[in-house]
Structure formats: structure tokens, C-alpha cells
From TrEMBL:
Pfam family, any one: SIR2_2
Classification lineage: Bacteria, Pseudomonadati, Pseudomonadota, Alphaproteobacteria, Hyphomicrobiales
Organism: Shinella kummerowiae
Organism superkingdom: Bacteria
InterPro entries named among the record's database cross-references: DHS-like_NAD/FAD-binding_dom
Name the record gives this protein: SIR2 family protein
């Protein structure tokens, strides 16, 4: 039976203690904006001062008009430093506005976090540490951990004014036993990471930026994506993510589009060395995700997306996909039903 075949592949990945890779699609169900909404927000909010900024922003808007998506439009363009700061600030503002609303719902216990239940299911065995690698700035993964009372670490010490863990990562112990912990590797930064005017980094639970003195530490799509990653805290986050990806025996990707050169090469390298299961679950699989699964992931791949009939699954027997009518396997809840 078709559903049994899909379930067997999904359960094999689930049982491999996979690294969980979160893309923007994993946050969309919580009302967080995607790249299209961010592009519209930047077009509305970004203003320029002087000819240099105006010329730089004109190149970006022309790329938008030509049909390029946000990352394409910002890639390869040397923009003035002040314009770059404006784009970073407005990017933070756009994502933060929605994250703040989500936090308010979470505080009132009005938000459902399927990712939290997935985390619990993955930690149900003897596994003590779960690695989540994400390109997202938002705090959905953190809220999901909180929703099921699982400790998480994002590379900073606990507290209100948090410093980097540095070379000695924090471990959590209770009654002499190590506690289950989710390590969240935020390779593009986080809404609560900031750089002070003296160049030092801190993490703080802010939902409003002060007028001066703090710069959000997020790697915006395109132009500064790689130059910033040589600095802390990005370097440590990427190194931690690399270790997790290099050592994993499976990958469970949620809403990840395979458009990021920080993550995809590590998964590809592992797939070439060893037959590891790779499962990608999304409302809509990107063309890049389908290409990776069909041409690079090896034989143990599974992709699931929404279809007009229910779900559409891509695997070795049906690399171009086959519909599974009447079921939702593409959402986190639906995928959990499939594997548990």
C-alpha cells in the first residue's frame, strides 16, 4: 500500500536521530512573514539619503521589477553602509513585528506549537541532545521548546543580558543527570542578538529597538550574507551547525527550500559519504528542494507537500511524485501522525 511505503521511509528517517533543519516555511503557519512579505515591507519602509544610497536602492528595486526574488535582488550589489544598516533594521522590524504578536499569543497559551510535540517525540528515546539548524531569525523554535518544557540553548548564557557561551558550551544537569536539551544553531542570527556600539555581542529579549547603540545581528538575504558570517556569533553558530550536519545519520527538513549555501553542501557531502535518509516536509516544495532530493540525496529520500487531493509524496519509486488522497502528511502535525 502506498501510504505504508511512505510511512516506512518517514519512520526510518525519524528513527535515525536526525538533525532538524528549519526553513521559513516552518514559521509561516505561525504568521511569520516569508521572503515575499519581507520584500514588500522593505519596498514600503526603506528611504534613501543622498545620490549614492538612491542609486544603490534603485538597482535593488529594478531587480524586483524584473521578477527577481529578494535574495536574487540583493545578491552581488555593493550597497552603501548606511543603506545596508537600514535594510538590516527594517528586516528586523518586519520579522519582529510578527514575532511579538506570536509571543503574546504564546504567553496566553493561545498558540499551538506542533514543533514542540515533534521535539518531544524525537527525544523520547535515550537521545539526550537534539540539534536544530535554522536559517530563521524568529523564535519559533525557542517557543516550541518552552511549550513542552524542554531546555534549549542558542549559544548564549541564560539571563536577560546574555553573553556568548564561548569555548565552554553550557550543559544542563539535574540530580546528577544530564537533561534533554535542544541545541538551536541559528546560522543567520536571531531577533534577540545585537551588536553594541563597542562591537561586543549580546542577546537580550527586546521587542523594540532603542534609537541608537544596538545593531541587530542578523544576516540579511543577499549582499552581506557571507561577509558577516566570519564574525561572532555567526561563526560559532555555523561551526556548531556544521558539526551537527556532518555527524548526523539523517535529516528532517521542515519548510526548508534548499536555497542556502551554508546548509545544503554539508547535507550533500554526508549523502555522498553514506546512505542517510533525507526527508523534506513543506506546504510547497521548492524546485531546489525537489532537485536536491531527486538528484543529490541518494536513494533514501522523501519529499511531502500539499496537493489539491491531500498530500503528494516524492520517493525512490516515484521520483516525480504521486498523490496520496485525503490525508495531510505535509504539516508537522500530519507528519507526526505518519511516523507515530
Amino acid at each position: 500500500m502506498l501510504e505504508d511505503d511512505v510511512a516506512k521511509i518517514a519512520q526510518s528517517c525519524f528513527a535515525s536521530s536526525p538533525v532538524v533543519v528549519l526553513g521559513s516555511g516552518a514559521s509561516a503557519s505561525h504568521g511569520l512573514p516569508g521572503m515575499g512579505a519581507l520584500k514588500d515591507f522593505l519596498l514600503e519602509k526603506v528611504t534613501t539619503d543622498g545620490d549614492e544610497e538612491a542609486e544603490g536602492w534603485a538597482k535593488v528595486t529594478e531587480a524586483f521589477a524584473a521578477g527577481e526574488h529578494l535574495e536574487q535582488a540583493l545578491t552581488g550589489k555593493a550597497l552603501p553602509a548606511l543603506l545596508t544598516r537600514k535594510i538590516v533594521g527594517h528586516t528586523w522590524e518586519c520579522i519582529n513585528n510578527s514575532d511579538k504578536v506570536l509571543f503574546s499569543r504564546a504567553v496566553r497559551a493561545e498558540e499551538n506549537f506542533p514543533l514542540g510535540r515533534l521535539i518531544l517525540a524525537l527525544l523520547a528515546s535515550s537521545q539526550k541532545v537534539l540539534d536544530i539548524v535554522t536559517t530563521n531569525y524568529d523564535r519559533v523554535a525557542e517557543y516550541a521548546c518552552n511549550s513542552v518544557d524542554v531546555i534549549h540553548s542558542v549559544g548564549f548564557t541564560p539571563g536577560y543580558l546574555q553573553r556568548r557561551e564561548g569555548s565552554y558550551p553550557i550543559s544542563f544537569v539535574q540530580a546528577g543527570k544530564s537533561l534533554r536539551t535542544v541545541k538551536i544553531w541559528k546560522v543567520h542570527g536571531s531577533l534577540d542578538w545585537f551588536e553594541r556600539s563597542d562591537g561586543t555581542a549580546l542577546s537580550a529579549p527586546l521587542y523594540e529597538l532603542p534609537e541608537a547603540g544596538l545593531l541587530p545581528l542578523i544576516v540579511t538575504p543577499g549582499f552581506n550574507k557571507y561577509e558577516r558570517t566570519h564574525d561572532e556569533p555567526f561563526r560559532s553558530a555555523i561551526q556548531g551547525a556544521d558539526r551537527a550536519l556532518e555527524q548526523s545519520d539523517g535529516y528532517l527538513c521542515l519548510g526548508f527550500g534548499f536555497r542556502d549555501a551554508h546548509i545544503e553542501p554539508k547535507i550533500l557531502e554526508r549523502c555522498r559519504l553514506k546512505k542517510v535518509p533525507v526527508t523534506v516536509v513543506a506546504r510547497t516544495l521548492t524546485d531546489e528542494a525537489k532537485t536536491f532530493l531527486q538528484q543529490k540525496a541518494g536513494p533514501l529520500f522523501l519529499g511531502i507537500e500539499q496537493s489539491a487531493k491531500g498530500s503528494r509524496a516524492y520517493f525512490h519509486a516515484y521520483p516525480d511524485g504521486i498523490d496520496i488522497p485525503g490525508v495531510d502528511y505535509w504539516s508537522v502535525d500530519g507528519f507526526l501522525n505518519l511516523v507515530t
